[in-house]
Amino acid sequence: MRGLEPADPRQVGGYRLLARIGSGGMGTVYFGRSAGGRPVAVKVLHPSFVADPAFRSRFRREVTAARTVGGGFSAPLLDADPDADVPWLVTEFLPAVSLRDAGVLPVEAVWPLAAGIAEALVSVHRAGIAHLDLKPANVLLTADGPRVIDFGIARAMDASTVTHAGVFAGSPGFMSPEQVAGRDAGPASDIFSLGSTLVYAVTGAEPYGDGTPYAKMYRIQHHPPLLEGVTDERLRVLIANLMVPDPAARPTAAQLTGYLASLQANPSSAWLPAPLLAEIQRRAIEAENPPAEIAATAPKNVSRRALLYGGIGAVAAAGVAAIPVVLGLRSALAPKPSPSKKPLTQPYVTRTPSTPATTDLEFTFTGKVTLTSITITINGRATTEKNRKLPWRKVIQVPQGKHGTYAVHYSYTAGELAYRVLIGGIQIATGSAGSTNGDTLDFQGDFDG
Domain check: are 241 and 112 in the same one? Predict the structure, then answer.
């Protein structure tokens, strides 16, 4: 957590805001308390999106999905007002460490992890929703079991697909083959992503290796996952069954929970290694004494960099799309786990953030139209430009070697256009659009700097 900044609201709805948790592509998440003193996480839509009907509609869908999903292994939505002047939603605050930042887990912890995620997916799928962005960053480890968060991409199963050629909804490295190919993706896609997530939990590495998003997506379509690091044979067999290319051949979430229940793989108060449980307890204590507000004259360069470009997820905030969270002891700029990383044996230690090297994140638009408005949001920081004739190019510096998210919302005049996104000169996304009357569209994705 970090203290509130001078421009931050102090109250939203009936909830008192006490500290910042993080900021993502669509909104800022605050730690707060209800009128009765209950600790909560409050997500507020970024001011730059408030007047945008497309983003309001996406926020409304996010709220609907979060309200629909129940169960003990997902984050409960407590309150929301998607039609407010500044839309907001409130979820239960849970001290936690994200799976992405937890280090390699021992096999005995991965079984209850799998059982908890599978049970969460049963609730999600039973509600008629597919999550479509299950990954380590969207799994929080709490003392009483894992929680699945972030329904920013989730869709109703009877809706049209959210992935199509050139526009990727999901996280490269954890997407299913059908998502990568732009085909209709549903509950079976979540099962594949669960397999990928379990590989990461037990090895500290993604199942299709490192590299650019496009390289990962190519491997997902054409190569089997890398399971050599999964040394437990029974777990390796389970993951292989979850990650078969044919969606129809994968087990359902309900079938998976039945199998895991037969192994008595239920989460308990001691399901995590002691250092992780100690860190979770430390965060619970921190929530009892949030950091003080930041004075208007206080320097912000280091803390803002840490806030925007990394962190440890520690709030069960359903529908928070790729929101980096910094809660104190672990540097937001700490490196990602690698295959050689050893299981966690020591508590987290304080590290001083350093200025990272940067690389170019480039957005290029071509065609014979005018961009009447374009907003590019990188890890929660939005920039808007007006009336840009094509061709048009925008280059933004991002930290090298760090994971991040981008979102692009644009309006254009009648005609056709094409766009592409590059990171370090390597293309990671491309697409096109056309309309006789002009249109307003958006796309988003992940990148590794």
Answer: yes
